[in-house]
Amino acid sequence: MFQIIFNEISAAEISGLDTIAQLELLNQFKVRSEDLEDLDEGEGPFGAIERGGKKLYRYRAKDYRIYFEVAGDNVIVHRVLNRNTFQDFLFRSKLPVNEDEALGDSKHFWSLIEEGEKARRVES
Known about the structure:
Strand content: 25-35%
Radius of gyration: 14 Å
Helix content: 25-40%
CATH architecture: 2-Layer Sandwich
Order of helices and strands: EHHEEEEHHHE
Number of helices: 5
Number of strands: 6
Largest sheet: 6 strands, mixed
Number of domains: 1
Structural class: alpha+beta
CATH topology: YaeB-like fold
Strand order of the largest sheet: 2-3-4-5-1-6
CATH superfamily: RelE-like
């Protein structure tokens, strides 16, 4: 398993959830290197999003999506977002692709991630 590191933005996003939701989400979010190999499109809780050679992972848990990268033995969490944010986007734009593909092409999504990357890290 990796050590999980939240940045200021992702820590604030998870802190905005009620305590029970935080505990459930953090209890479910366990990442092993095997989880990130052979990712099936749309299957399972993990997915991968790529753009310009940059690879980002997505973890689905109930109504939330955790977007993170792997750096050595660390999982760096960039954003913790409510799933409806991107489902609404997909519904409105009626894109015939899966969620991860649509996010990979979304400039707004990558702006959110870049904002998270620039935020100070908080060790957990």
